[in-house]
Design goal:
Elements lengths: L7 H5 L4 H14 L18 H11 L14 H15 L15 H12 L5 E6 L4 H8 L3 E6 L3 H14 L6 E2 L28 E7 L8 E12 L4 E13 L23 E13 L2 E11 L4 H9 L5 E7 L3 H7 L19 E4 L7 E14 L2 E20 L5 E10 L5 E10 L11 E24 L2 E14 L5 H6 L17 E2 L6 E9 L9 H7 L2 E10 L3 E3 L3 E3 L31 E2 L3 E13 L6 E9 L9 E2 L5 E4 L2 E4 L7 E3 L11 E9 L1
Helix pairs in contact: 5-6
Length: 681
C-alpha cells in the first residue's frame, strides 16, 4: 500500500473538528493574535488526591499487572449497576448489561463494529461527538447526521429519513449526555417540585384515526395509425381519465374548509401524437409528444380525512412556540384532558377548492442513422414539463412582516456582506389552530435532455453499446416521490406559498452520464469434439462501465442560536421565522453536488452444453467496481452558517463532507467478487 488512497475507510472520514480548531488556533497564535482557549472540555483542575493515591496503591500491587477480565472486574461492574439504581432507579444485570471499557469512544466504536454491517444506516443528532459518525464509517455503515437545533427539528428530520430512504436506519445513536449536553428536560423525570415544563415538544392524539373510502377510476384510450405515404407514418391517440372521488371529509365546524368537496379535473383528456419519417434508406426521424395526467393518490386522501380534526385530532406543542408550552402544556408526566385543552396547538390538512390535477407535457425527437449493416447512431432530444404540481402553504400563518438585515461574516469573523429578508411575526389569524396546511398547485418542473447512442449489433462474436446523456432538471422545490404522495408539508419552501423563490436544480438533476457496455463471445474453433465444446468454446466476456457527474446532495443550511427578531412565528433555523426550508437563502437551491462517479463491472461466463437439447450450465465469475473507485453519495448539509445575534458566520468545516456512500443496487460501492452457476432449460 504505497498510496494513501488504498486506506479507503480513512478517506471517507470527515475532518476531525478538534484538529481543525487546533490548526486555526495555531495559525492565530502564530499571527500574534490573542486566543482564548476553551479547550475540548478537558479538566482544568488536578485529579482529586484520593484518586491519585488509590491509583498509586493499586499500581504497586502485582496482581493488577495482569490482563483484566474482558468484561471488567466483577466488583466494578456491580458498583456500576448500583450507581444506575441509585441515581436513575434502573435495574441492570452486572453480568449481562454492564461492561468496562477504556472510555465512551472505545465502547461506541466496538459497539458499532459488533452491531452493524456494510450498508447499514445509523442516524445520530448533529452536533455530536465525532465518534458517533467516525465509528459508523469505520464499520462500513452509512452515517446520517441530523440537525438538532431543537427537538422538533430533529424528530421531523428523523421522520423524513424513515419515510424517504430506500434503506431506513438500523440504529439511532444517542448518548446521555449528548454533545451539547442534555437539556433541563432531564429534571422533569425527578425532583420537579416546582411544576417546570422543560421539554421541547409534546404530542397527544385524541379519537380514532380509522377511516374508510373508495376511489373509482375510469380510463379510455383510443389510437389510430395512418400511413401517409411510404416515408411518413402518423400515430394519433388520446386517453381520457375520470376519477370518482369519495365524499368530502367530515366538516370541522371550527374550520369549514375541511368539508369542501375533493376537486379533480372533469375532463382530463390527454392527446398523444407520434411521427416516423424515413429520410432515406439509412436515416429515420422519429418524434412523439403527449400529455399525461397524474392519478389521485390515496396518500393524499389519508391526510385529508385524518387531518381535519375529526374524528381524530392531534395536539402538538413545540419549543419553537414556547409560550404555548408555558401557558397550556401539561407538567410531565401528565397529559391533556381533552383535545380542546390547548388552543392553537392542533394542525389541519385541507385541499384548496381550486385544486387541479397535476400533469406533465412530454416530447421527444430522435434522428437515427445506420452507419453500416451492424452499426447505428442515434441522437435524441427529450423534453418534459410538470404543470400544476402540488405544493403546500400554511394558510393560518401571519403575513410576511417587516424586513430584518443580517450581517454575513466569513470564517474569520470579518463582515463581507448583508442579507435582508422579511420576517413572519405576530399571532396566527385563527388562534384556535396552529398550522393549517393547504395543498395547492403552483409548483412546476422542467427537464431537458440530449442523448447520443452508438450501437453495434451482434456480429463476429461482438456487440457493444455506447450512450451519452446530457440533462438538466429544474423545479420549484418538488421534493421526492414521498412529497407527491402524502404532501401537507411546507418544509421544502423558504417562504410560505412562494414556490418560485426555490426554483433551481432539482433533486433528479444529473448533467452528464456515459454508459458503455459490450459482450464478446468468440468462437475459437469450429470443431465439434468434446474438448472444443467443454473447454475451448463457450466463453463470454461482458462489461458495463458507467461514468457520471454528481447529483444534488441538497442545500446547506443555517443554524440559529437565538431569536434575532422578537415574535418570530417559529424559533427554528429559518432566517425569516418560518418553519419551511432551513437552507442558506442567498445561495442557489441544491448548490452542493456529490463528486463524479465511475464504476466498471465485468462478468466472465463459461457455457457448458448438457446432453439434453436446449439445456446448458452457465458458470459465472463477476467483479463489481473492479477499480474499487469510491465517492460519497451524500454530503453533510448542516451547517454552512451559524447565526448569533443577527450575525451569520461562515462555518466551512461543518458541511460538505461525505456522510454515506451507498451504491446501487446492493447498497455498497466496495469492490465485490462473486461466482455463480445457472442452469438454463
Amino acid at each position: 500500500m504505497s498510496e494513501t488512497k488504498e486506506f479507503y475507510r480513512i478517506q471517507k472520514l470527515p475532518p476531525y473538528v478538534f484538529a481543525v480548531i487546533n490548526e486555526m488556533k495555531a495559525k492565530a497564535r502564530a499571527a500574534q493574535m490573542d486566543v482564548v482557549d476553551l479547550g475540548m472540555g478537558n479538566p482544568d483542575g488536578a485529579t482529586p488526591q484520593v484518586v491519585v493515591d488509590k491509583l498509586i496503591e493499586a499500581s504497586r500491587n502485582p496482581r493488577n499487572h495482569r490482563y483484566s477480565l474482558s468484561r471488567g472486574i466483577p466488583h466494578l461492574r456491580e458498583e456500576i449497576v448500583k450507581r444506575y439504581k441509585r441515581k436513575h432507579n434502573v435495574d441492570l444485570d452486572p453480568d449481562k448489561e454492564a461492561i468496562v471499557t477504556m472510555g465512551a469512544k472505545d465502547a461506541l466504536a466496538h459497539l458499532l463494529f459488533a452491531t452493524i454491517g456494510p450498508g447499514d444506516v445509523v442516524a445520530a443528532p448533529n452536533p455530536a461527538y465525532p465518534i458517533h459518525q467516525y465509528g459508523v464509517i469505520m464499520s462500513e455503515g452509512y452515517s446520517h447526521m441530523l440537525p438538532m437545533p431543537d427537538a422538533d427539528t430533529f424528530l421531523e428530520r428523523l421522520r423524513e429519513l424513515y419515510r424517504e430512504s430506500m434503506k431506513p436506519p438500523k440504529m439511532l445513536l444517542i448518548s446521555f449526555p449528548h454533545n451539547p449536553t442534555v437539556t433541563a428536560f432531564a429534571q422533569d423525570y425527578s425532583g420537579n417540585t416546582a411544576g417546570l415544563k422543560d421539554y421541547t415538544s409534546f404530542t397527544q392524539t385524541f379519537g380514532n384515526p380509522l377511516v374508510k373510502y373508495t376511489i373509482k377510476d375510469l380510463g379510455v384510450y383510443l389510437q389510430d395509425q395512418w400511413k401517409v405515404n411510404d416515408r411518413l407514418t402518423v400515430t394519433l391517440g388520446a386517453r381520457y381519465e375520470r376519477t370518482f372521488t369519495p365524499g368530502p371529509a367530515i366538516e370541522n365546524p371550527a374550520f369549514p374548509l375541511t368539508g369542501e368537496n375533493i376537486p379533480t379535473g372533469k375532463v382530463d383528456l390527454m392527446p398523444r401524437i407520434g411521427l416516423a419519417y424515413r429520410i432515406n434508406d439509412k436515416t429515420v426521424l422519429r418524434a412523439g409528444a403527449g400529455t399525461f395526467f397524474a392519478r389521485l393518490v390515496a396518500g393524499l386522501l389519508d391526510d385529508v380525512y385524518t387531518g381535519n380534526g375529526l374524528p381524530s385530532t392531534q395536539t402538538s406543542l413545540s419549543i419553537s412556540n414556547a409560550s404555548l408550552i408555558a401557558s397550556q402544556g401539561p407538567v410531565f408526566p401528565n397529559v391533556l384532558a381533552s383535545a380542546g385543552t390547548a388552543a392553537g396547538s392542533s394542525t389541519l390538512d385541507v385541499l384548496s377548492p381550486k385544486l387541479k390535477t397535476p400533469y406533465s407535457e412530454q416530447a421527444e425527437i430522435t434522428l437515427e442513422r445506420q452507419l453500416s449493416k451492424d452499426m447505428v447512431l442515434s441522437v435524441s432530444g427529450i423534453f418534459s414539463r410538470g404543470v400544476n404540481l402540488y405544493g403546500t402553504q400554511d394558510i393560518n400563518a401571519p403575513a410576511l412582516g417587516a424586513p430584518f438585515t443580517y450581517t454575513i461574516d466569513d470564517a474569520g469573523g470579518n463582515a463581507v456582506g448583508t442579507y435582508t429578508t422579511g420576517v413572519y411575526t405576530g399571532a396566527r389569524p385563527n388562534p384556535a389552530f396552529g398550522a393549517v396546511y393547504e395543498e395547492t398547485n403552483g409548483v412546476s418542473s422542467w427537464y431537458d435532455g440530449l442523448t447520443v447512442n452508438f450501437k453495434k449489433h451482434f456480429s463476429h462474436g461482438f456487440m457493444s453499446d455506447l450512450g451519452y446523456t446530457w440533462s438538466h432538471e429544474i423545479d420549484d422545490g418538488q421534493g421526492s416521490a414521498t412529497n407527491a404522495i402524502f404532501g401537507f408539508s411546507d418544509a421544502l419552501w423558504t417562504y410560505n406559498g412562494q414556490y418560485a423563490f426555490d426554483k433551481g436544480s432539482g433533486a433528479l438533476d444529473q448533467r452528464h452520464r456515459i454508459v458503455y457496455s459490450f459482450i464478446y463471445a468468440p468462437t475459437f474453433t469450429h470443431s465439434n469434439n468434446a474438448f472444443a465444446k467443454y473447454v475451448v468454446n463457450g466463453w463470454q466476456l461482458a462489461s458495463i462501465t458507467t461514468i457520471a457527474s454528481g447529483r444534488p446532495a441538497g442545500s446547506p443550511t443555517v443554524h440559529l442560536t437565538d431569536t434575532p427578531v422578537t415574535g418570530m412565528l417559529y424559533s427554528a433555523s429559518a432566517l425569516n421565522g418560518f418553519n419551511g426550508a432551513f437552507r442558506v437563502p442567498f445561495w442557489p437551491v441544491n448548490s452542493l453536488y456529490t463528486p463524479w462517479t465511475q464504476t466498471e463491472n465485468l462478468r466472465l461466463t463459461k457455457n457448458i452444453p448438457l446432453p439434453r437439447e436446449g439445456m446448458h450450465l452457465a458458470l459465472n465469475f463477476e467483479a463489481f467496481n473492479v477499480a474499487n473507485n469510491w465517492s460519497p453519495t451524500a454530503l453533510q448539509l448542516s451547517q454552512a452558517y451559524n447565526e448569533t445575534k443577527g450575525v451569520l458566520t461562515y462555518t466551512p468545516t461543518q458541511y460538505g463532507y461525505g456522510t454515506s456512500d451507498g451504491g446501487f443496487p446492493d447498497g455498497t460501492q466496495a469492490r465485490r467478487l462473486q461466482v455463480s452457476a445457472r442452469l438454463v432449460f
